[in-house]
Amino acid sequence: MSAAERQTEAREGGVAIRAEGLTVSYGPKIIQRDLNFSVRRGDVFVIMGGSGCGKSSLMRVLMGLLPPGAGRVLYGGEDFWAAASARRAEIMRRVGVLFQSGALWSSRTLAENVTLPLEYYTALPPRARRSIASLKLAQVGLAGFEDYYPSEISGGMKKRAGLARALALDPEIVFFDEPSAGLDPLSAAQLDELILELRDSMGMTVIMVTHELPSIFAVADDAVFLDAKLRTLTAQGSPRELLRRGPAEVARFLRRGKGAEDETTEDAGGDAPDGVRAKRAPGAAI
Amino acid sequence: MSNLAETALLETERRGDMLVVTASGVWSMRARAAEARNMNRSGETALAALSSGPESASSAPRVLELRADRLKEWDSSLLALFAELADRARQAGMTVDYAGLPEGMARLLALADAKREGGAPSASGQAGKNASGGKKAGPEPAGLLELVGGKTLAVPGLTLAALNFIGEVTAGFGRFCIGRAAVNSRDMWRVFRQCGVDALAIVSLTSLLLGLILAFVSSLQLRAFGAEIYVSALVSVSMVRVMGPVLTGIVLAGRTGASFAAIIGSMQANEEVDALITFGLDPVDFLVLPRVLGLAVMTPLLTIYADVMGILGGFLVGTLMMDISPSAYWENTLANMSLSQIWIGLLHALVFGFVVSITGCYQGLKAGRNVEAVGQATTAAVVNSIVGIIVSTSVITIMFTAVSL
């Protein structure tokens, strides 16, 4: 882990978000403590861990919804939680979020969901805003659904519409809270592909909370593992690395609890994701 | 004969240091009441045999063997009993032998054993069991003193949170005035409609009836003095000054305040409020301000309408049932009405507008992230609004009485 950290240290210039001594807590109840990690620009960064270990809470701290118990979150070197609230709002505008349920504003159509942030943060006329909304919806495969209300579309479509909204302001960093939760395997895989495609074409940094192994192997460049019992981060690295050289607990997680003797089968299954990673060499997206 | 073979039976037998429990007959959860009682009785006998006390340590059985030789049918009713026996036996330091059971039954029991061991960290052993059992039952019900104390201690925190929210809304209003608040104007128009046209019917009905009631009740007393003509003054002044605004406020608390809490609460539950924040949109500016401003405008307007309807109700009773001539009634109404009464009434209305909208929005925003919390927020919004309306009415009334207006 320290080796991985030194590696990221060397590339400090390309760091999108850094956590320093971060403690995630709800009042006196500490969820995770002493988290130190960096997210490289252009990476797909996965926060993994068992259920209830505090993945989503950590993400709420990173995206400015939950103040940390201690420590700092640095956005491009700037201490996010120490900044004034107006400055925080400004930083958040460079960030998009796809919530677990999509969290579309239910009283607005899909197009209006996408145009709302544009309405407040750009000087674009309504027609231009509408055409941006159509473009974003088309990018996530929802062309023609502009005038539907969130209650009229399926769960998978809601997620994609939520993604279109997250991309509305052309964010530099996009957070995904369990994007494949509640989706069938095929839709989940399609969403993973979409995330990679958008990352490659728009050069954004992706931070994702998930415990879906296929997703982790398919998309992650880098990952951290939060231990539910130790209440801290126990490993950082690419999933392949962690599978080979990570702590036993992490390797077990990545093998779905199977023993080391299953390594060969895992390897066979893991080859494709590795190929994918090779194609998307570090920094290719930037 | 066949009937006997189908009776659920559990035989307990000592064989050396082994305790053998043999089940036979039909064990079914769908058994009739009499058989169910029988099953229960034989189960309790077996459990009692297992923990039958005063044997010396040397003569106590060391192995529990579960058997099912002449078993015809079984389901979870027997399985649960066996699991309980096995658990009890292990606690007593015995080993349990499943060899005499059908394979499926033995496997299911073993599965439950494994899950019990791997489950909650404190589930092994009697002491741990007590601890986890205690946790599940929750804290002991608090005594009256503790209850009152807890509620009292919570008051400063709740007051502070509410004041904090009012401060935030005020700051938001400041931003709105200098044009720097991102306000959802669509929500404001919706409030105008909801508290305007949509509320007219219910306000008409309630305030007309309130006017009628006031006229009837006051006429009973005034008739004794032959002063029935003053019904008109009584109805109009009380409607305009207090009853009109209070009635409007209560109707709005039930209709609008509740819907504010429900809408904002469900947005909170669905992470929609979080989504606003991540776009740098302040929920107070975006969601609360349009509702507060909307109600601040609409409550006085609706109150004027309610006043008119109430006076009309009194007019109907006075002219049609008490034989006061319409012109006399009207004269008397005007003679006793003054502009200051109307202003005082409108001040009430404005205050109620703030009370209802701020309470509704506050309850909605602080709702928890689940569906049940939305219901609680709605209830709290209505109850607190109505209490707030009554309390602020008395404060305003005392204030104006003190300056004799």
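qc> Chain A has one domain: 2-94+171-279.
qc> done
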